[in-house]
């Protein structure tokens, strides 16, 4: 069973160590922390040799069911799990239902199935199919099946309540099926907190999920602009207050440095690492200081403000003027440089 030891708490922010989360019980992981993001169980843009040469790689690798489900028969025949199949046998695996980079279109989940999208199209998962997939994947941490659609702000109360009810029903059924399987009964199960942007439903989801024998919690349904920043932070604060202190809290789709710090301040422990992948995919590179503590020598100087999207289109990221006007800057953040700009192009 996974064990979380909290060493320091400041406000809602937590510092600690997760231990005994491997079947051998020998691995540890500091929080706050992040997971190593993969696509089809392969770290994007990194060869295996390059990955081995990088210091400080997270001890837990994030694989996604939506990119692996169509390979179920191959993995079942292989019998050794996705970790060994993909050359990740020296790491712990966390399997989420969906890929945070590619949220599923809404409207396809039912009371009996959850739809995921693979490269071959839509797949419907029942709890039985989900557990069968997990037997083949052999992940160490498993996000339970849930009705985790990203809902637009202002979703109906009926839809939010339904997402909570369905997710709790899926959780109960999956826990029952996993407890009956010798290979899965000792796995770390992560319960999902649903409810859209309705605080009442989010709190109900948190309280009810906490009553189940789960080892951690996923604050689901927050990626992108589905909920305003203020509402998102308010919901996160309210939810983490309801969750037991001895179990870790994860969140998907939060990767910007300022957003990560805001979530840490509100009690979130673990994040995916999709942000660097998204930056790379739009032809940019991360470029910012990671010194959080203020330098005493410059403490009195005005700080560089965080720019918003509309400011970026006419601000410092557009120093070349009309020469780079054709570049789409709508998603570029203040933490990156656009390598498509002419000043970065080698002649």
Automatic annotation (TrEMBL):
The record places domain tRNA-guanine(15) transglycosylase-like at 13-289
- Ranges where the record places region Disordered: 296-327
Q: Which InterPro entries match?
A: Queuine_tRNA-ribosyltrfase (IPR050852), TGT-like_sf (IPR036511), tRNA_ribo_trans-like (IPR002616)
Q: Where is the composition biased (Acidic residues)?
A: 317-326
According to its UniProt entry, the protein's GO biological process terms are: tRNA modification
Q: Which Pfam families does the entry link to?
A: TGT
Q: Which NCBIfam families match?
A: tgt_general
* Protein name, entry field: tRNA-guanine(15) transglycosylase-like domain-containing protein
